[in-house]
Backbone:
């Protein structure tokens, strides 16, 4: 039986980006210390944590030392190498579980898992050779989207294929890796549900948010999402079923396409999620606190939405809007303290209460 952590315990977090930063702040509010493990120097989370180890994920000595100095380990991104998890697991528990992580790390396993639960995904074909790509294209037709099975995020590692696409060139451009071809979903809009499950099996889901992506990167999330009552209930029940079937502990983000009024699951992330940032200003207990509560073995908090919110990301040079947003005064600003401005880099976000 997994232990219940008391305030004052230390939570280890793999990854020091903005999600690790906001997890650290939520943990600190509950009296926990955090220790960040991250390869790069001066990551956002290290400014708000009590411990920071700068090391690569294959530095097993540092990983062992890190894991033996904390009471539980969680993570802010899903592409953690298996070898690192093997080391950590010998020292302390990891939440969410390795099983959830393994499935979400591989788009093929993920789709098979979702279909097995009886839920819809885009149609798909495994692709592991140029001939395989030609065969998959004959099956699924165009438009379709070719994605790397692993290590993709924010639209990276994927390409949209049309009638004139050249399979040889495309296969080579994606690095001849293990791929998946997905039928193009002609959706009207995209939504996501942020759900959480505690160690004793309590489940709580935040209201679905409606997401707008540009170039594969999330731009805005609006709550409430444009859904019928039935669709909203279905999205929440699907999320709960995924949590239940994985015996999951922590927060999950499940992304859906809404196409012809049908909910089609795109993917899930076994962690706090960018499309859940609205909860920071729209709920008594936000996704970050909910995650810390769950992995600490505490009861989940009240995630009921008390207002309508729009969350907007500040991407790349949109961070230059900061002075205007400060002058505006009516939005809640969340800045990550990143120094280098790069195209596509998430620099901050803000939440605006609509009503
Ligand atoms: P992903 O990295 O798989 O979440 O994809 C990023 C974004 O690309 C999604 O949020 C969608 O806007 C779009 N997208 C991904 N897969 C598909 C698909 N099969 N059909 C249509 N659009 C897609």
Residues:
């Amino acid at each position: 039986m997994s232990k219940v952590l008391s305030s004052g315990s230390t939570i280890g977090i793999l990854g020091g980006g903005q999600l690790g930063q906001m997890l650290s702040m939520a943990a600190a509010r509950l009296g926990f210390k955090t220790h960040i493990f991250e390869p790069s120097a001066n990551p956002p989370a290290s400014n708000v944590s009590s411990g920071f180890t700068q090391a690569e994920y294959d530095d097993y000595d540092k990983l062992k030392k890190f894991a033996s100095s904390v009471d539980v380990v969680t993570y802010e991104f899903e592409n953690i190498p298996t070898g690192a998890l093997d080391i950590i697991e010998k020292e302390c528990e990891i939440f969410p579980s390795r099983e959830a992580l393994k499935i979400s790390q591989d788009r093929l396993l993920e789709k098979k898992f979702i279909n097995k639960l009886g839920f819809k995904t885009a149609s798909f074909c495994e692709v592991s050779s140029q001939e395989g790509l030609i065969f998959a294209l004959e099956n699924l037709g165009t438009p379709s989207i070719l994605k790397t099975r692993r290590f993709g995020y924010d639209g990276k590692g994927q390409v949209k294929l049309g009638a004139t696409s050249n399979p040889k060139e495309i296969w080579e451009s994606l690095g001849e890796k293990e791929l998946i071809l997905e039928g193009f979903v002609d959706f009207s809009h995209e939504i996501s549900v942020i759900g959480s499950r505690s160690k004793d099996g309590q489940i709580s889901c935040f209201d679905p948010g409606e997401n707008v992506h540009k170039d594969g990167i999330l731009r805005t999330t609006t709550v409430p999402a444009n859904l019928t009552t039935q669709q909203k209930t279905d999205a929440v029940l699907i999320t709960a079923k995924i949590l239940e079937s994985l015996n999951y502990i922590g927060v999950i983000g499940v992304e859906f396409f809404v196409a012809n009024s049908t909910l089609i699951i795109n993917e899930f992330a076994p962690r706090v999620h960018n499309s859940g940032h609205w909860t920071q200003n729209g709920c008594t207990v936000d996704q970050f606190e909910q995650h810390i509560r769950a992995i600490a073995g505490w009861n989940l908090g009240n995630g009921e939405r008390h207002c309508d919110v729009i969350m907007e990301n500040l991407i790349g040079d949109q961070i230059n809007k900061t002075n205007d947003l400060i002058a505006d005064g009516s939005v809640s600003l969340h800045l990550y303290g990143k120094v280098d401005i790069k195209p596509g880099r998430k620099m901050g976000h803000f939440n605006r209460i609509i009503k």
Summary: The mean pLDDT is 95.
